[in-house]
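Handoff note, outgoing to incoming analyst
You'll be picking up this chain. Sequence as last confirmed:
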Amino acid sequence: MDTQTGIFPAQVNGPTTARPTNLDYIGDFNPHGKADLKQLLGDGKTYNPMRADDIIAAPYAQGKKFILNPHDPYHKVEIESEKGDLILYDGRMNH
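Most recent structure output, in case you need it:
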């Protein structure tokens, strides 16, 4: 990204960042009573979408121009932003 170089890791061991919990936004989204808070939060041990985004992957890089395979003219991919920054995430962590 821009002048920064790097490699894609084989495993999801990248940097993380904490975000405000989704639990702050709990409300009565189902007025008919088909789901309650215990159903939404689960047992606290398994994957839960209410808590899934509390810790997310931090970006590997941020900048205006991203080049993949810069030394290979047949497989080179270049992406450039004319307005905002491009941000490179490893989305495997959150899915």
